[in-house]
Design brief:
This protein is 32% helix and 25% strand. The strands form three sheets. It has a nine-stranded mixed sheet with strand order 16-15-14-13-7-12-11-8-17. A six-stranded parallel sheet has the order 3-2-1-4-5-6, with helices on both faces. A two-stranded antiparallel ribbon has the order 9-10. The chain is globular, with a radius of gyration of 21 Å. The chain is α/β, with parallel strands linked by helices and 383 residues long. The chain is built from ten helices and 17 strands. It has two domains: 131 residues, 3-Layer(aba) Sandwich (Rossmann fold); 223 residues, Dihydrodipicolinate Reductase, domain 2 (2-Layer Sandwich), CATH 3.30.360. The N and C termini lie far apart (47 Å).
């Protein structure tokens, strides 16, 4: 027997749409899941946007006030895809209202915000999931297993990169994303949060770090109206960019391994160039998001001039079998969100966490705070 799970989405930009579509696709990929999401309410403060989303995607109701979601007894689970500065207030309120919570990273502006949401979820006894979607890629999960098995020996160092051009255009609108009070730490929260999560997912805890940050586009035009995504706004009143375009960070892991994490949102010529290279004493493994279903692997006993192979992940890797029947059939970005939705709903159905949790968000946010502290002081920071 399949029971209905009333869900709501708060914030309906691009990510709100992705969450909504992920809920809708769950029965297609996971037909045995004992809970089936039912779209109850969409909340969005921009006039008309919630009503449009309700009509397009089939929500039963729409509102401009997210507080109505907390009071709605039909809603058991909530996706929070609103801007960063609202994460803490909305996340805590939903948990206190007894709603299960799927919230986008970075879960607020600081580690304190993430911890407040995590504490509220724990106190309420509800399930909490976080949008660190890249760890859900079957190839990434295979890389983690390969590393843990010792096939590449003892890990010596890792390089994690997250380069994008979404903020490279000088006419990019000065939205909340570029303000310290509403967007937080810029590219740290946008992209480096994923890097911090991947680093811990693959190699374990980070013990210390030192970081450097920069703003390369210091001024942008204010938009004249509501925006979505990364809109352009030429000719508007100029204002200062208050948070980081770029971060580079040296990492020391508790295991003794070393790492480099670099992220930039103004990298001209780079579109979602995300990935990692992990080196060990007997081999290496690397992954590129743009070739999401492949791994580059070197393993053996020759050490010098050791060949590298391309491995296409297949049904035995992670959740691949729920999407494709055989290796080298491509999965895409939205599929990672379906996996995330599945693990969230499964957590609710079984009463035990699957996938990323609010604890993972706290770990990532703690790393981001340490990066900001190090960039300001010029010193190594212990975690």
């Amino acid at each position: 027997m399949v029971d209905a799970l009333g869900v709501a989405v708060i914030g309906f930009g691009w990510m709100g749409r992705v969450h909504t579509q992920a809920y809708a696709r769950l029965p297609h990929h996971y037909p045995r899941l004992p809970l089936r999401p039912r779209l109850i309410t969409v909340a969005e403060e921009v006039p008309g946007r919630a009503e449009e989303a309700a009509e397009r995607f089939g929500f039963a109701s729409a509102t401009r006030d997210w507080r109505e979601v907390a009071a709605d007894p039909r809603v058991r689970a909530v996706s929070v895809t609103a801007p960063n500065f609202l994460h803490r207030e909305i996340g805590v309120a939903m948990a206190e209202a007894g709603k299960h919570l799927w919230i986008e990273k970075p879960v607020g502006l600081t580690a304190g915000d993430a911890r407040a949401v995590a504490d509220a979820v724990a106190t309420a006894g509800v399930q909490g999931a976080v949008g660190f979607n890249y760890r859900n890629a079957p190839a990434v999960e295979s890389a983690r297993e390969l590393i843990a098995s010792g096939e590449i020996g003892t890990v010596t160092h890792v390089r994690i990169r997250l380069f994008s051009d979404y903020a490279a255009h000088p006419d990019g609108a000065l939205t909340w994303r570029y303000e310290r009070e509403r967007g937080g730490s810029g590219v740290l929260g946008d992209l480096a949060s994923h890097g911090a999560d991947l680093a811990r997912f693959l190699l374990g805890d980070i013990a210390a770090l030192t970081a450097d940050t920069a703003i390369f586009v210091p001024e942008r035009a204010r938009p004249s109206g509501a925006t979505a995504g990364h809109a352009l706004a030429s000719g508007g009143e100029p204002g200062p960019v208050e948070n980081e375009d770029y971060v580079s960070c040296l990492l020391r892991f508790a295991s003794g391994a070393r790492g480099v994490l670099e992220a930039c949102r103004v990298s001209v010529g780079e579109q979602n160039n995300y990935g990692f290279e992990v080196h060990g004493t007997r081999g290496a493994v690397s992954w590129d998001f743009r070739r999401m279903n492949e791994l580059r692997v070197s393993r053996g006993t020759t050490y010098q001039d050791q060949p590298v192979s391309t491995v296409y992940v297949g049904p035995g890797a992670g959740e691949f079998a729920a999407f494709q029947p055989g290796a080298a059939n491509a999965m895409g970005y939205d599929d990672l969100k379906v996996i995330e939705a599945y693990r969230f709903v499964r957590s609710i159905a079984e009463g035990t966490p699957y996938g990323t949790t609010l604890a993972d968000a706290v770990h990532s946010a703690t790393v981001l705070d340490a990066m900001a502290e190090s960039a300001e002081s010029g010193r190594w920071v212990s975690l």
